Every structure is written in C-alpha cells, then in structure tokens.
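The data layer described in this paper is built around a simple, fixed record for each protein. We quote a single record here, exactly as it is kept in our systems:
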Amino acid sequence: MNKPVIFLRIAAVLTFIHAALHTVGGVFGPIDQGPATVAAQAMKANQFVAFGHMHSFWEFYRGMGLGVSIFLTAESIVFWQLSTLAKTDVGRFQPLLITFAVAYAVFAVDSNSYFFLAPVIFEILIATSLVLAFATAKSPSKAIQETALQA
C-alpha cells in the first residue's frame, strides 16, 4: 500500500473518532452542576421567533453541535474514499488535501481558543496526516509520465 493511502486512512479514522467523541461528549454529554446548568437552562428558556418558528438558543447550540458531528463523519468517509482513489491517482486531488489540511489547522486554532486540548490534538493529527498524504503523493505530471513508461 502506498503512503498517501495510509495517511488518508489515518486521517479518516482520526476524523471518525473525533466525530464520535464530539457527539458523545460534546453534543450529548452531561452538563456539570452549577453555573453550566444555569447557563443551559437560560439557553433553553430564552425562546424567540426565527424565520417564523419558535426556537431557543439551546436548540441552536445543540443543532450546530450535531451539524459539526455530521460534517466530521462525512469528512471521515470522504478521506476513506480518497484513500481508495489514491491507490491509482492521488496527484489529481492534491489541492483537496491541502484545502482540508489548512481547514483542520485553522479548526485546531479555533478549538484551542474556544474549547480544550483534546480536539486540538485530533485536529493537528488530522492536518498532519493530510499534509503527509500530500507530501508523499506524486504530482499529476509524474504520475502520467510513470504511466506512459509502464505502457
């Protein structure tokens, strides 16, 4: 198995674990007694009309948390699918790898600023795996040259 495939599969597994932990611990995790409970109750109690429907800040908070879990899961699937494609022609989607790597690096900065260390570690490891997949991939022109030589 070539290196980009391995690094993309590592990124896929890490992203899936990140999604699972975010969902279990972040979205559906217990709320600590004390100020956190008071804040959650205030978010649930503060109802308002948004686009013709009654909502609360808690619903927005919970919905956005689930949205992050959904997209992390989708990204893990995309990384696994890219690893399958990387067996034959990883060079064609190198720009995607850099886009996701930069996004995960920025995600790590965001998590460091607003959350805590665990997601930061996962996001740095995912970004690193994507950069390594990029770095070990053959450019499209080299892949075409090698294919031509093999024919």
